[in-house]
Amino acid sequence: MPNIFDLLNSAAGSPRWAFAFQGQAWAGIGKRAVIVSQGESRFEETAAALASRSPNEIWFGGFAFAPTPPSPPWENFPEGFLVLAEKVHGPIPIAPPKPPQRWQIAESVDETPRDEWTQAVNEALSEIESGVLEKVVLARRRRIRAAASIDPVGAFALLLAAHPEAYVFLFEPEAGAAFVGATPELLLSVSGGQLRTTALAGSAPRGSSNAEDHFLGMKLLASPKNRREHAIVVEEIRAALQPLTVALAAPQTPNIRRLPGIQHLETPIRAALRPGVGLLQAAAALHPTPALGGRPRSAALRFITEHEPQSRGWYAAPIGIVRPSGEGTLAVAIRSALLKGELAWLYAGAGIVSGSIPEEEWEETALKFRAVEETLFL
C-alpha cells in the first residue's frame, strides 16, 4: 500500500490533491480533466458537466465562498473547480510519519484592524436590532510570513498529526499555491441516497483540567446566545434540505464537540434524498449555511460583502471529493491556510447574533486562528 506522503512528495512541482478523514485518505497527482464553473449556478453547472462522466470517478475540488471572480491571493482558485487527477490513489490507510518541524514566524499581521472589526460587529448588531439580520458571520484575515518557504505536504502532515478527527486537505492547483486545512465541519456526505450533514455553531475554549473542560462545556450548552446561534443553523439546514428529501432527522438538543483548543455545539442531521438529487444539488441548497453566512442568507451575504475588506476565496466554502454518481463528501474549509512560498493567509470567523460583544467575538476568532497557527508555526 503506497504512503500518501511519499506519493505527494514524489510529485513536487505538479498539481497535487489530498483529502483525508476517518482514518483514510485519497491522493491525486496532475490534471487529466478539469471542470471550471462560475456564478450563482456554479454547483448546477458542475453537476451537469459531471453527468456524462463515468459514475465512479473520483474528482477533487472545491468552490469559492461567494460567486465572484478570484482576486489576490486567490487567483489560482476559481469560483468552482473540480479536477480528475492523472493518477488517483485511495482510499489509503493513514499512517502519519513523524511530522516535520514547524516553521518559524518572521512576521504576523492582522489584516483586519481591531477597530474596523469592532465597528463591523456593532453595525451588524444594529441591523440585528432593526430586524434586517438575525445572524451574520464575520471573518477576519491574518497574514504570516515564515522564515523559510512552507512545504504544503509538510503542512498537510502536521495538520493530520494534530487533528486526526478532522477533514484534512491539501489542494495545490498550481505549483506554489496550496490550500491546506483541518476542518471539523462537514457540509454534507452522500452515499446510497442517504445524506449526512452537521450543524456546528457556538464556541467555547477548552479547559486546563477535566473539571474545567466539563464546566466550560456545560456553560456553552446553557448559553442563550450560543444556543440561539446554533438553533439558527439547525433550522436553516432543515429548511434548505426539506424540498430535496423524503425524510429528515435531527436531535432536539445539541451535543458538545470537543476539539484541540476549542469546543462547539454540534447537531448531526440525517436525511434520505429524493430520487435524482445528488451531492452537488444538495450543496447548492446548503451553502453557505448560517454557520458561515447568516440569516436571512441574502441580507447576511450583502453585509459580508460590504464589511469584509478581504475576499474569503475558498475559506468557509465546500471542499472535498465528488463522484459523477452524485455521491461524495464535502467539508467546510475552515481552520485553513492559503500557502504561497513563505506566506500564509489564515481566516477565522464568528457568528454575530443579538447579545454578541465585539471584544468576545474578537477573542473567539483569535482562538480559532490557533488551530492552524500553532500547528504549523513556532
- The level of helicity is 25-40%
Order of helices and strands: HEEEHEEEEHEHEEEEHHEEEHEHEEEEH
Q: What percent strand?
A: 35-45%
Gyration radius over CA: 20 Å
Return the CATH class: Alpha Beta
**CATH superfamily annotation:** Anthranilate synthase
Class of secondary structure makeup: alpha+beta
CATH architecture: 4-Layer Sandwich
CATH topology: Anthranilate synthase
Strand segment count: 20
Tally of separate helices: 9
The total tally of domains equals 1
Q: Gap between N and C termini, in Å?
A: 33 Å
List the defining traits of the structure above:
378 residues; alpha+beta; Anthranilate synthase; ten-stranded antiparallel sheet; 9 helices; 30% helix; 35% strand; globular
Descriptive report:
The chain is an alpha+beta fold. The protein has one domain (4-93, 106-376): Anthranilate synthase (4-Layer Sandwich), CATH 3.60.120.10. 30% of the residues lie in helices and 35% in strands. Strands 1, 2, 6, 7, 8, 9, 10, 16, 19 and 20 form a 10-stranded antiparallel beta sheet that branches. Strands 3, 4, 5, 11, 12, 13, 14, 15, 17 and 18 form a 10-stranded antiparallel beta sheet that branches. A hairpin with a 2-residue loop joins β14 and β15 (262-273). α2 (42-50) packs antiparallel against α7 and α3 (114-130) crosses α9. The longest helix has 19 residues, at 358-376. The two termini are 33 Å apart. The mean pLDDT is 95.
